[in-house]
């Protein structure tokens, strides 16, 4: 069963069916118990009335046993029938099936003890005050057989004879009521289950209608590959509305990612085209005229291609979610090492490393790449000086790289971190690289839980600030 509506309707119907069946069974048991207790009370009352008559000295013949609705059977200690209702023809459930009085019957009577003199106390007649014994059985009265609830009450006559009075009350009312309720339940249960199934189906269909709209729109987006489309958002504030909003947010992020990837591929193709074309031209000229081969130019273009390919590979790994290692890196020592290797720079950077804990957790190679890119950028735009400062500030380690160049206009301070972006007045294609250095630096900083920002140095040039958290202080 693949339909959510069908599964919901079936599940709700099964739950209601089980609940109604359990409730109906409980109602029937309680109803039957109450009516049976009521019949038992009627039987007890009749049995005690007959027992009272016997206790007062009434003879068996004087007993009032003409009530056809409450058959009575009186037995002695040996189980012999000494009195029985007039129209009782058969009985079961009382322990004695006899319906004919024994002869001669041990009938008590007034004055039977006048001829005997007894120095002791006369016998006392009494009706047992104990709770009677109840049984279920049948009785045939005047040709009609029915079920009865029997109550057995013991009585001691004046002659010190113990008798047991069995009196019955009909269970026809109990059976009729139980049958009526059972029939009503069996008739109403299917109707109620159909109503529950129908209501659940309609409610579920109405609730899932927005989901179907979302599905159709996503199918259309998949078929058209148009990530600019969005799924409809219902006006409700339920889970489906939140699902639609989350889906649209995901589509927005996906669209931005695809657009960024397309621009990346286009820009990378454009950047690769120039050095490849230049290198090919030089090689073709060298093949035709070896004396005209510009070998240094060919090496320069090859190095440029190598650097660009390395940048593109690093960006691809960062975009794929590659996480840096957790090696302890001393930023002060790292900066000194990077500066010491830059012997061919036009301007030698001035380094200032403060005392204190300057270790961070991350990839030494990637952090060295960030420092190198910042030094390359500063050396490219500086006029006379480049300065590097490393210090600890609260829970972070700061690396500041400043130069005395033209600086970065405030309006461009966010844009220069975009990929393949070069400012026209500060960078050129031959010396400015492909415009990936700062983008790589910021991405690596973000992967290490830090930030990279640009501002204005006191000398008017650019000041790049790299902030990395101390170990154990990383941002969540």
Summary tags:
476 residues, 3 domains, 5-stranded mixed sheet, 7-stranded antiparallel sheet, Helix Hairpins, 14 strands
What can you see in these coordinates?
- This protein has 476 residues and is an alpha+beta fold.
- It has three domains: 4-107 and 122-178; 239-319, Orthogonal Bundle (Helix Hairpins), CATH 1.10.287; 327-469, Histidine kinase-like ATPase, C-terminal domain (Heat Shock Protein 90).
- Helices cover 46% and strands 18% of the residues.
- It contains seven helices and 14 strands.
- Strands 1, 2, 3, 4, 5, 6 and 7 form a seven-stranded antiparallel β-sheet that branches. It has a five-stranded mixed β-sheet with strand order 9-11-12-14-13.
- Strand 5 (133-141) and strand 6 (144-156) form a beta hairpin.
- The longest helix has 53 residues, at 172-224.
- The chain is rod-shaped and about 150 Å long.
- Mean pLDDT is 84; it is low at 113-119 and 425-430.
Output the helix-strand order.
Answer: HEEEEEEEHHHEHEEHEEHEE
**Over all CA atoms, what is the radius of gyration?**
53 Å
Structure summary, number of beta strands: 14
Largest sheet: 7 strands, antiparallel
Give the gist of this structure.
With 476 residues, this protein is of the alpha+beta class. The protein has 7 helices and 14 strands.
List the helices and strands and how they pair.
Elements: H1 4-55, E1 72-75, E2 81-84, E3 88-92, E4 126-127, E5 133-141, E6 144-156, E7 162-170, H2 172-224, H3 239-288, H4 295-319, E8 327-330, H5 331-340, E9 350-353, E10 359-362, H6 364-381, E11 386-393, E12 396-403, H7 437-447, E13 451-456, E14 462-469
Parallel strand pairs: 9-11
Antiparallel strand pairs: 1-2, 1-7, 3-5, 4-6, 5-6, 6-7, 8-10, 11-12, 12-14, 13-14
Helix pairs in contact: 1-2, 3-4, 4-7, 5-6, 6-7
């Amino acid at each position: 069963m693949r339909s959510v509506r069908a599964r919901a309707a079936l599940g709700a119907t099964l739950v209601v069916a089980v609940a109604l069946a359990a409730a109906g069974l409980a109602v029937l048991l309680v109803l039957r118990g109450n009516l049976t207790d009521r019949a038992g009370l009627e039987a007890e009352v009749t049995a005690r009335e007959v027992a009272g008559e016997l206790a007062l000295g009434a003879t068996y013949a004087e007993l009032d046993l003409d009530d056809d609705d409450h058959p009575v059977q009186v037995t002695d200690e040996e189980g012999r029938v000494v009195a029985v209702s007039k129209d009782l023809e058969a009985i079961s459930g009382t322990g004695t099936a006899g319906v004919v009085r024994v002869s001669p019957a041990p009938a008590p009577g007034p004055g039977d003890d006048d001829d005997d003199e007894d120095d002791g106390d006369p016998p006392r007649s009494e009706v047992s005050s104990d709770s009677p014994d109840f049984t279920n059985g049948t009785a045939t009265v005047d040709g009609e057989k029915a079920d009865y609830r029997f109550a057995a009450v013991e009585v001691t006559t004046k002659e010190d004879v113990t008798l047991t009075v069995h009196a019955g009350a009909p269970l026809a009312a109990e059976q009729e009521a139980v049958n009526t309720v059972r029939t009503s339940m069996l008739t109403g249960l299917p109707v109620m289950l159909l109503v529950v199934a129908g209501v659940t189906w309609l409610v579920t269909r109405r609730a899932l209608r927005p989901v179907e709209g979302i599905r159709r729109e996503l199918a259309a987006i998949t078929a058209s590959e148009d990530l600019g489309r969005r799924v409809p958002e219902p006006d409700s504030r339920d889970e489906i509305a939140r699902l639609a909003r989350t889906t649209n947010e995901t589509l927005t992020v996906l669209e931005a990612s695809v657009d960024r990837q397309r621009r990346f591929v286009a820009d990378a193709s454009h950047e690769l085209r120039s050095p490849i074309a230049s290198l090919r031209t030089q090689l073709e000229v060298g093949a035709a005229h070896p004396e005209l081969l510009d070998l240094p130019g060919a090496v320069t273009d090859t190095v440029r291609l190598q650097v660009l390919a390395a940048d593109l590979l690093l960006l691809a790994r960062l975009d794929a979610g590659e996480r840096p290692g957790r090696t302890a890196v001393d930023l002060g020592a790292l900066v000194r090492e990077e500066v010491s290797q830059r012997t061919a720079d036009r301007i030698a950077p001035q380094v200032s490393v403060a005392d204190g804990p300057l270790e961070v957790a991350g990839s030494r190679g990637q952090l060295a790449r960030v420092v190198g890119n910042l030094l390359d950028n500063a050396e490219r735009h500086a006029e006379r000086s480049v300065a590097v400062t490393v210090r600890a500030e609260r829970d972070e380690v700061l690396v500041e790289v400043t130069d005395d160049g033209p600086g970065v206009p405030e309006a461009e301070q966010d844009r220069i971190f975009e990929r393949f972006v070069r400012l026209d007045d500060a960078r050129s294609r031959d010396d400015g690289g492909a415009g990936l250095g700062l983008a790589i630096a910021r991405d690596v900083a973000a992967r290490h839980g830090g930030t990279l920002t640009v501002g204005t140095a006191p000398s008017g040039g650019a000041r790049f600030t790299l902030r990395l958290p101390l170990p154990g202080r990383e941002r969540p």
